[in-house]
Structure formats: C-alpha cells, structure tokens
Hints:
291 residues; alpha/beta; D-Maltodextrin-Binding Protein, domain 2; 10 strands
Amino acid sequence: MRLPPLNAIRAFEAVCRHGSILKAAEELGVVRGAVRQQISTLEDHLGRKLFVRDGRRLVPTEKARAFAEAAGAALTILKRAADEFEEAGRERIRLGVPSAFAIWWLMPRAADMQASLGSVEVDIVPMSVAEPLSQHPDFDGVIMGGEYRSSVGIIETRFMQDEFGPVATPPLAARLAGDVAALAKSNILVSRSAPKLWAEWFAESGAPPVAFTHRREFADLLLALGAARAGLGVALAPKASIEDDLARGVLVAPYGFIRRPAGYSLCCRTLDAKRPGLVALRNWLLRSGTA
C-alpha cells in the first residue's frame, strides 16, 4: 500500500481548512516555505495539481476538496485513537459551545451533566463566534443555534427550541412601551459575532424594519449582554442565554420572544455518532433541553 506522506497530508488538509498557507503554517508551527514544500511533495505523489491560483489566493480543485475532507476525517480518527490509547480507555469529549450559551445555560447544569455521563469527561470550549465542526478538527462536537447549516459527514441532533428577542433593563423597556418604532431612537447594542441578527429578527418577527440612529458594536454577545444589563441600550439575545436574568427581573423582553425553526443542535461527525460518550451527552441534552 503506497500511502502519501503523513506530514504532506497534514499540511494540505490545514491549507484547505484555513484557506491560507500562512494560517496553516501557524497551526503546524512551521514556516510557510515548509508548507509549500509539503504541498509540492503531495502533488508529486498524486501526480496532479491540487490548487489553482485565483489572483493571490490558492483555491483547491474539486478533487482536492474531496480529498481534504477524507484526509481531515482520517486525521481525526488517528488523533482520537492515539488519545484513547494514552488515556487508557478514559473517554474525553471536547465540545465547542457559543460563549453566552455555555455560561448561562450549560454551566449551571454542568454538575447534572457530569453525573449523567459518569466517567466521560467533557471539556467545554467557549466560542465567541459560533463555527461549524468542520472548522475545528480538534473538537468532537459543537453546539449550534439558528446559524447552523447542514454539511456532509456531520450529524446533528436538535435538543432544544431556540427563541430570541430584544432585551433591556426594566426602566429602558418601559420607555419603549412595546412600540417597535421606538427602537429607532434607542441605543442599539450589536454583537460583531452575529452582525445579521437584528435584520433576522425584523424579518422573522414580521415587525417593520427600523433605521437605528444610535448603534454600539461589541466583539461578542457576552459583552453586548453585559452592556444591556448595565442599562446602556437594547440587545438582541437568545432566551436560553438569559433565563436567569429574566427570572430575576434584571432584563425584560419588551416585544417578547419569537421561535426560530432551527433550534439548538448537537453536531458531531457521522463516524463518531455511536461513541458511548457522545450518545450519553446527546441523551442528556435531549432530556435537559425539554425540561
């Protein structure tokens, strides 16, 4: 069996995933020239070019993209097998979770989750920007909300409904008086990690769009919600991420919440779908999401 060199496959897969030789080199801890050399080695082995040039960018060919997906899956399987060998059978799940969801929904339930999963260890990795599992070969799974889009080789399990709406402190919400038009003169708090969320809310709620005159941007939803709690303006938030604030009256939803069809889903690779730890995590999420 004449297999391609492993280092060449790693370099190629990283370039395809990042779309950049520089970012691939940074991930692998080598210089750009070394990545280029590995790509050349792999092209010599396969007997064909893997990329075409589009201006200053290298774009993988159709066959190269398919090969990169297979290579990524194979590398993930190898890494997991090595981890399980080193950990003597202990199962560990590395789970990517949107930051606000992790802090305000998942972490308060972490003790119950651990009790349900027994010896399976779950590493919760907060994501300031929700990204698909294909962008994180080191993750075993990710939790995605309304931004999720299906992809090849990924299986998703919807475990909870997704509702979202504008939120503010009670005094600020009282000034809005349930009038959507009043948002035009309010200080609107926007998360750069979800820049289209307000437009989606207008479209999905059926409310007529409003041109904001006062708008403040924050790096992620955590900061935008922190500003909303401080009374600095109106933020758009998933209900699951602010349940405690709503219960304590710190924040209120002057226009209520609307339900999104996608909901929250646990996404994992099809090859991993029957792993005992992921099955246990999936079952726990299904129970907790409907509780």
